[in-house]
Specification:
The complex is a heterodimer. By secondary structure, chain A is α/β, with parallel strands linked by helices. Chain A has three domains: about 80 residues; about 160 residues, no CATH class; about 230 residues, Rossmann fold, CATH 3.40.50.410. In chain A, α1 crosses α4. The radius of gyration of chain A is 30 Å and the shape is globular. Chain B is α/β, with parallel strands linked by helices. Chain B has two domains: about 150 residues, 3-Layer(aba) Sandwich (Rossmann fold), CATH 3.40.50; about 90 residues. Chain B is elongated, with a radius of gyration of 25 Å. The N and C termini of chain B lie far apart (about 70 Å). Classes of the chains: A alpha/beta, B alpha/beta. Chains A and B meet through α2, α3, α9 and α11 of A and α1, α2, β1, α9 and β9 of B. The complex binds adenosine-5'-triphosphate (ATP) and magnesium ion (MG). The site of adenosine-5'-triphosphate has 17 residues of chain B, from α3, α10 and α12.
Chain lengths: ~500, ~300
């Protein structure tokens, strides 16, 4: 597998490969991954050194030349699979029984009956197998961690259960759902654990059982991935790489919309926030240290010049006393904007050393101060979680009422707003047609240093329906669209 | 670059030779090392702490029989520490010793000669005539200006010293830059490099690392260690255990003469694997969180 192609080999095969690569790179760019010309050329050279047959290495070679940011890796992988999933002998679509390709060293009973059946009904071999037999083989393969068998069974399952019809514009998730539902994996985990209990020489300790569980979960995940991959291969074969790439295109974590993130995207966002805050904190700390050369401090320079015989060889500068702002965050944490509030609070607290003080208030229709949740905690993520579960924010019905929340804020904390305070208001300003009470913002603006409103909704939706961000905006120094991490980071960096 | 210059005959060979020096690579790592040699490009290695970024450079130096030249980066690292500087103390002494016999021109020429040059890692790597591997460790710590200097050198493999002229590399060394991602590196530097992200190893690879690196450990224990670490990494922690922490833990267990890890052992030694109090608490809860264990002997 590791034999490098001779140059003549490359010359012969490179034409179609380079074409394919061209489309691939175009799609990476469409997905938002920045690929420069140099990198494009590097990738073209890289593939002359690593043969496609060496799939993993080939994938990493492309990744190494084209993707220079790890958070873009998932997006890269999806595009890679779409473009290269049909290349290479072992990855071709097989409409004959996939189990027949399993190694000869398999046990007789692990083979699928009906193998060699050239074209079984329903476009799949192994049709002679009853669903019960298939389930049994799957159980065994999972129990033994038999990778090759799992892959074969995943293909078999897709052929049989996904019900894929050529040309039908249905997304992959639908087929995945159908396949998995028919495989009936629900009770599988318990059965597997039960079996490994029986196999064990002595009783499994709870820790051992826990580890077994994680191992089986891992195997089932791999099975699901195989099923997904097989569905994708078939979709690509049917509709072509370009169309599929477009369907499957996923936003990069920094571009994921806070308000419409899927569960998986949310997990990735949560992962992305830690390195992001760390980088931001380091960057800001440096800015503060280096960027702050004040005017020449004449007296100090002269004093030092004495050691140079009166030559002012070492100019001294006045460092302007860093005026750190005081921050008050007032955040709507109802339903669809909750995630946005979470990430913003997280980011603000992660760089709280940049401010002289941070206080935070959350509301839905009632309002509660949550500053205490963040005091002396190691883990901001956990504090944010507590805010969402423990803060007392419901007054009447748990639908956002900005007017009432602002009223509470003004009454209880209004006097704490001073000329050094920067107020950040987070929310979509969808007020459920309650009274706006915008006079309060006017007062706040009057008293404070700055008031900013951050809105997680796309600008186009502002002031439609019950959104009254325009009215509130009149009393703000700025209203910003902050739909994703990229925008949030930019705003926070400017704030400091 | 022709195949004759290549350091590795083929891709599988890279992985195998790395394994020979006890570095367990996967296809990605081995593939990129192989490619870096073929394309003559530096590798920028990122990833969580303790996943073998620095070790990779050392191990590669080992297998190609090259001298490892290491530039350890820190905030404030500048040209004089990275590239070269003149040994001014020695120069001063030379001037004093002169006593006015030679003309200034002669003295000057003499002062800025090889004898007074302090070679730092980057220049050393460029001037080397023997095979070298250059490791620029933790590059994210340097200032932007120093990063620019690095970029310049990695693009041209030559240095011009005004007093001495231009020094050109006779070879394109293998170069590794590691970063812990505390700062976003410049686009230009990233463009110049191949990018390798070394994540935590999967179960199988971690088991192999433990077996290779911990003397006297049995297959069973190594397997258990790797499995428990995998489970711990799935918990929502402040800092997940790194490979070095896995190794520390495995060594501790061997020292304690453990051959089966039970909940009690895991709990008692969790502080070797995890560094934050809250993380240890979480893991302990996870291990002990079952009635049997808590009921103890009465059960
Ligand atoms: N793949 C591997 N094979 C063998 N040993 C490994 C491997 N990965 C890590 N190690 C071991 O783990 C330890 C940590 O590795 P290393 O210091 O290279 O990590 P690092 O990624 O450079 O960490 P940091 O980010 O903290 O600098 C070393 O003892 C190293 O030998
Ligand atoms: Mg290191």
């Amino acid at each position: 597998m590791a034999v490098t192609e001779s140059p003549s080999d490359v010359g012969r095969k490179s034409e179609p490969l380079l074409d394919l690569l061209g489309g691939f790179i175009l799609e990476l760019r469409n997905a938002g991954i920045p690929v420069s010309l140099t990198e494009n050329l590097d990738a073209m050279e890289a593939v002359t050194h690593i043969p496609l047959a060496d799939r993993e290495a080939f994938k990493y070679a492309l990744g190494a030349t084209l993707v220079k940011n790890h958070s873009h890796w998932r997006a890269f992988e999806v595009v890679f699979e779409v473009y290269f999933s049909l290349r290479g002998p072992e990855y071709e679509i097989m409409d004959t029984d996939p189990a027949s390709s399993l190694g000869e060293d398999e046990d007789q009973d692990a083979k699928m009956p009906g193998q060699g059946d050239p074209q079984g009904a329903g476009g799949g071999g192994g049709a002679a197998l009853t669903p019960e037999q298939l389930a049994e083989m799957l159980f065994k393969a999972l129990l033994q961690g038999d990778e090759a068998m799992l892959r074969a069974l995943a293909r078999q399952a897709v052929m049989r259960y996904a019900g894929m019809e050529p040309g039908r514009p249905v997304g992959g998730t639908y087929y995945l759902y159908r396949t998995l539902r028919n495989l009936d994996l629900d009770g599988m985990l318990e059965r597997l654990i039960e079996a490994s209990r029986e196999q064990a020489p002595s009783n499994l300790t709870p820790l051992e059982e826990r580890l077994e569980r994680d191992e089986f979960n891992d195997r089932m995940d791999r099975l699901k991935k195989e099923v997904e991959a097989e569905i994708r291969r078939r979709l690509v074969a049917d509709r072509g790489a370009e169309a599929m790439a477009k369907t499957l295109r996923k936003p990069l974590p920094e571009d994921v919309d806070f308000m419409h993130a899927s569960r998986e995207e949310m997990v990735n966002l949560r992962k992305a926030i830690y390195p992001l805050t760390r980088k931001l904190a380091v960057r800001l700390a440096r800015k503060r240290r280096h960027g702050r050369k004040g005017p020449l401090d004449f007296r100090n320079t002269m004093r030092h010049s004495l050691s140079y015989g009166g030559v002012p060889a070492e100019p001294k500068f006045k460092f302007p006393r860093p005026a750190k702002p005081e921050i008050m965050v007032v955040a709507d944490i109802s339903g669809s904007v909750a995630a946005f509030a979470r990430f913003t609070l997280h980011l603000v607290y992660a760089i709280s050393s940049q401010f002289s003080k941070v206080r935070s208030f959350v509301f839905i229709d009632g309002l509660d101060e949550v500053t205490g949740f963040f005091e002396g905690v190691e883990d901001i993520g956990e504090a944010v979680h507590r805010v969402n579960t423990e803060a007392d924010v419901v007054w009447v019905d748990g639908h956002s009422d900005y007017g009432h929340a602002f009223g509470v804020f003004w009454e209880k904390y209004g006097r704490d707003v001073g000329p050094k305070t920067t107020v950040l208001i987070l929310g979509d300003a969808r007020n459920n047609y309650h009274a706006s009470q915008s006079w309060i913002l006017k007062e706040v603006k009057h008293r404070s240093r700055k008031v900013f409103w951050l809105n997680p909704e796309p600008r186009a939706y502002w002031d439609t329906g019950d959104s009254i961000v325009g009215e509130y905006g009149t009393w703000c120094d700025g209203v910003h669209e902050v739909r994703n991490l990229r925008q949030l980071e930019a705003f926070v960096e400017n704030l400091v | 670059m022709t195949d004759i210059d290549a350091r590795f005959a083929d891709l599988a060979g890279v992985r195998a030779s790395l394994a020979d020096v006890n570095y367990l690579a996967d296809d990605g790592i081995a593939g990129i090392v192989y490619l870096a040699d073929r394309l003559g490009k530096p590798i920028l290695v990122e990833g969580p702490a303790g996943t073998g970024k620095t070790q990779l450079a050392k191990s590669v130096a080992d297998i190609v029989d090259a001298r490892l030249i290491r530039l350890q980066c820190y905030e404030g690292l500048d040209e004089s520490k990275a590239l070269y500087e003149w040994n001014y103390k020695k120069q001063l002494l030379r001037i004093q010793a002169e006593g006015g016999e030679a003309s200034w021109g002669e003295v000057e020429e003499d002062l800025f000669s090889e004898e007074f040059l302090l070679t730092r890692p980057l220049l050393e790597a460029i001037r080397a005539s023997d095979p070298v591997v250059l490791l620029v460790d933790e590059v994210d710590r340097v200032e932007v200006e120093t990063e620019a200097l690095l970029l310049e050198i990695l693009s041209e493999y030559q240095v011009s010293i005004p007093e001495l002229g231009t020094v050109e590399a006779t070879q394109v060394p293998l170069v590794f830059l590691t970063s812990n991602g505390t700062r976003e590196l410049s686009e230009a530097l990233k463009r110049r490099c191949l990018y390798l992200y070394i994540d935590y190893p999967d179960l199988e690879r971690e088991r192999q690392i433990v077996t290779a690196k911990v003397p006297g450990i049995g297959e069973d224990l190594a397997d258990q260690v790797a499995r428990i670490v995998r489970t711990v990494r799935q918990l929502d922690l402040k800092k997940h255990p790194s490979v070095s922490e896995t190794l520390d833990w495995a060594r501790t267990l061997v020292l304690l003469g453990v051959d089966q890890i039970d909940a009690e052992t895991a709990i008692d030694t969790a502080n070797v694997l995890l560094k934050y109090r809250t993380d240890i608490e979480k893991a302990v809860k996870e291990f002990a969180d079952n009635p049997e264990e808590l009921a103890g002997p009465e059960a």
